[in-house]
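Working notes for the structural subgroup meeting. M.R. asked for a predicted model of this chain before we commit to crystallization trials. I am recording the input and output together here so anyone reviewing the notebook later can reproduce the run.

Input as submitted:
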Amino acid sequence: MMSGGGGGDRFGPEPGPIPPRWLHCPRKSTLLIGGKFLAFKTPLSSKFDDQVSPEHRFSPAMLFSSMKSYKVKIGLWIDLTNTTRFYDTQDIEKEGARYVKLKCRGHGECPNQDQVNAFSDICDKFIRKNPLEIIAVHCTHGFNRTGFLISSYFIIKEDWGVDLAINMFAKAREPGIYKEDYIRGLYELSGDDPNEAPPPPQLPDWCKEFDDSTLDDDGNNVRGNKRQERNKKDPAFMEGISGVTPVTQKEKLAEIQRKIQEMCGWTSTGFPGCQPVSMDLDNLTSLRDNPYKVSWKADGTRYMMLIAGRREIYLADRDYSIFQAPEVEFRQKHNLIVHLSDTLVDGEMVIDTDPTSGTKYPRYLIYDAVRISGRDIMNDTFHMRYERIMTDIISPRNAAIEKSILNKQKEPFGVRRKDFWDANIHYTHKLLSPSFKSKLCHEPDGLIFQPESDPYVPGKCDLALKWKPASHNSVDFRLKVVKKSGVGMLTKNVGELYVGGFDPPFAEMKFTKLLKDYHNKIIECKFEKGQWLFMRERTDKSFPNSYNTALAVCNSIKNPVTEEILLKFINDQGYKKPDRDLMPPPPAKKPRT
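Returned structure, recorded in C-alpha cell form:
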C-alpha cells in the first residue's frame, strides 16, 4: 500500500518495543548510492527514548541535520516499513521533504512487481524534476528491502546489470543485501537465472543479537514461512503429453512449493533440485578421487515429483511451476491397495519413439530420491537411494499393474527407474557406443556422473558432473531480434544473444525466418563452424544461462574434454574400488577323495 504524508502518526503514548536488531544496526549508508539515494535504518521518535540510550538514538531530525552538514538536501523520503509506529510523518514534512509510504512486508518476502514498479516510477519522476536533491529510503534496518528496491531502480531505469547494482549498494552500505531471497529476486527481476546468484554475505554481528524467527523485521508477530515465489504466468508442461495440468490456485501452489522445499531442506526460493556442473579439464579429476555411477544424459525435461497421495501427483520444473498428474498412481510396497504418499523423487521426462511403428511413449525416468513414505533419505548414499527407488516405488507399482490393481493405460506417461552403472571404462565406453544409442528410444546428449557415496545435495553440486561431446555443447540465450544499420550498409535483422549478469549482447547469430518467432525467448544454441546455431526453444526455462556458464561452455569448446580424453582418463586414472568393495571370489572346490 502506498500513501502520501499528512496527518502525523497515530501510535499514541505507548509506541511498543524497538524493532529487533535495531539498536546496533548502522544508522545510514556511508555513500550516496548512484549519487541519488541515501539508505538508512528507520529513525525512532522521542517516544522510544526510555528504551534507547543517548548514544544509540536516531531520530528524523538527526538525519536531516547530518545531511545539511554535507550540504545535501533530502527532497523525497520513502518509508518501506509495514507499520506507522516508529515516528511522526509531520517531522519529515516540516523539513520540506515529501513523505511517501510504500508498505513492504519484509521477513523473507521480497517486494512484489507492483511495489517495484511504483518505487521506480516515483523515484524516476522525482529525479527528473529535482536533479539537485536526493531520495532518502528506509525499511527497518535499511538493508534488504531498501537495497532490493534501490537496486531495482537502477536495473529498470538506468539499465544497470544486476551484479553492478548489488555491488554498488554493498559498497555504500556494507555488507549490502544479506538475505539470499532478495539477491535471487533481483536476478529474476533482471532476467537472469536465480540459480546463478552469488551466495549472500556473512551476517553482520548486529544481526545476531537474538533469535526472532517469529517476528518480522518491524517487530510484528508472524506465522510460518513468508517466502514469496515469483511464479510464471502461463506455465506449460512438456509438449506432447496430455492429462497434466498446471496448478494455478495460489494457496495450493504455495503449499506444494513450500512442501517440496522443506523436504529438500531448501531455505531459499525457487527450484530446490540438485544441479550438476559441466565437466572440464579441472573437475575431471573427481573421477579419480571418488567412486561414481554413470548414466546417459537424456535430451528431456527435468522434473521433481511429489507423490502426496491418490490423485495428488505433482511435478515441479526448473522454473518452479507446479503441474498435477492425477491419473498417475503408485502403491505402498507392504500393501498394494494403499497409495504411496509423503514421497519426493527427482527425474526427467522423455518421449520414447518406437522405431518400428513410430508410436510415441512419454516416460518419467526416476534417477534419485529425497524422501520415501515419510522417511528422509537425503543423507543416505546415492547407492542406497537408488536401490530404494526400485524396492519402494517401481517394484510395488509394477506388481499393482500385474494384478490389475492399477490401470496404466489411463496414465498420461509411464514411470521407470533410470539405469546407472559403475563409472569404469567398460560401462562408460558402452554408453558412448553406437549400439547403445541405437537401443535408446530417445535422444541422448551426453553422460551424467553421480557421486556414489554422497548425500543428495539441493542446488549446485560441484561433484555431480555432466559431460557432453563437443558437438552438443550449448548455451541457453535470451534472443532479441533487432535491426542493424550503418554507413554504407543496408538495414538488416540480426539475432542478439544475451546471458545473465552481462549487459551487452554476449554474441550475435545470423537472422533467419525461423528466429522471428523466438524474439525475447530462451533458445538453446550450439557453436559450429565459427557461428552460433539455433537448436530449440527452452520452454522449460525463463532465464538464460549466466555469463560465467556461457564462458565455461566457450572454454569447453576451445579446450574440450573429448570422448578420447574422457575414456583415457577413466582407463588410466579412474577410481579403483578397494578390494573390500568387490565381489568375493567363489569358494574353493573341495578336492575329491
